[in-house]
Amino acid sequence: MNNLSRRALLAGGLVAPVALSACGKGPDADIVWRLGTNLPISHPLSARMKEAADRIYERSGHRLFIEVYPSSQLGTDADMLAQVRAGAIQMLSISGLIMSILVPQTALSGIGFAFQDRQQLFNAMDGSLGAEIKQALAARHLIATPKVFESGFRQITTSSRPINSPADLAGMKIRVPLGSLWTSMFRSFGAAPTSINFSEVYSALQTRVVEGQENPLAVVDTGKLYEVQHYCALTNHMWDGFWLMQNEEALNKLPGDLRDLVQAEFSAAADLQREDLAVLAETLPKKMQDEGLILNRPDTQIFRQHLRDKGFYAHWREQLGETSWRVLENYVGGLA
Ligand code: X2X
């Protein structure tokens, strides 16, 4: 067993990681890269990345094979981040909001209730807001592929009670991912947020270690979280996107044509994946209801006003700095 497999086992996986390679593909490649992510292969983000990896293998004439490891098989988000920085893996797809533990600017896209809709969001992320974030990542030797992948607007699910207003969140034990954007937001609502890696969320909800969690519906669906939750408040409280980052040294070692191929294929994959998510945004509310979740659509202005009153925007403006904040407000208007 190699070090990486052993590490994943020690990190809590019950099975050794198995790369998703189409039968017999890969062993003949000159260069093998590893790509890790926390989302399951049933999620369009992982599925489209896998398709891109297969195309890269074919179009490179079998020179480059990218092994895709979904479902946190290589460890927690923090583990994978350490691995990609050290060059133990070459690619990591991770939420920008988790990534902000290392590069604060990546939190810009997830500021609560900032974006009105996907159009406004993608204008920003394919424009100067995305450029600002990519530059901050590059300063830490992590080179993002050109287009951010979508996870979507996040919604709140609970087993205990429906959420109609911030008051309903008071004292609630809610799971959040790693990253202070989440803890500061849910503390502002008076909840008791706990950071848990995504691979442990299902069991934390099932055993009622926590009452609720928040995620885009595509993650609630592919993670089958509806099996262990009763209510879902469509709050759209923050947008979440995944950067696909490359270890700079590994990227620089690739021949120029392969470097270009990788960027082009993953850009095309991001376009397709965003379209998948747009379709799912329309169809998933009904599917979640059919799976037994009780949906409600709270008045989000009350939540936004609550964050304003608690100084949430002022806090993040200070954390991220005037210059970055202005880039965000250029797209979304004044927040505080
Ligand atoms: O951990 C989560 O909730 C997930 C999958 O949405 C992120 O990676 C932020």
Structure write-up:
By secondary structure, the protein is of the alpha/beta class. Helix 13 (312-320) packs across helix 14 (322-332). The chain has 14 helices and twelve strands. The strands form two sheets. Strands 1, 2, 3, 4, 5 and 11 form a six-stranded mixed beta sheet that branches. Strands 8-7-9-6-10-12 form a six-stranded mixed beta sheet, sandwiched between helices. The chain has helices at 3-10, 44-59, 77-86, 96-99, 118-125, 128-139, 180-188, 201-206, 217-222, 248-253, 256-290, 300-309, 312-320, 322-332, and strands at residues 31-37, 64-69, 91-95, 142-144, 149-153, 155-158, 173-176, 192-195, 212-215, 231-233, 239-247, 294-296. The longest helix has 35 residues, at 256-290. Helix content is 45%, strand content 17%. It folds into two domains: 6-102 and 140-151 and 241-281, D-Maltodextrin-Binding Protein, domain 2 (3-Layer(aba) Sandwich), CATH 3.40.190.170; 155-237 and 288-332, D-Maltodextrin-Binding Protein, domain 2, CATH 3.40.190. The model is unreliable at 1-16 (pLDDT under 50). The structure holds (2S)-2-hydroxy-2-methyl-3-oxobutanoic acid. Residues 38-39, 95, 98, 151, 177, 198, 215, 219, 240 line the site of (2S)-2-hydroxy-2-methyl-3-oxobutanoic acid.
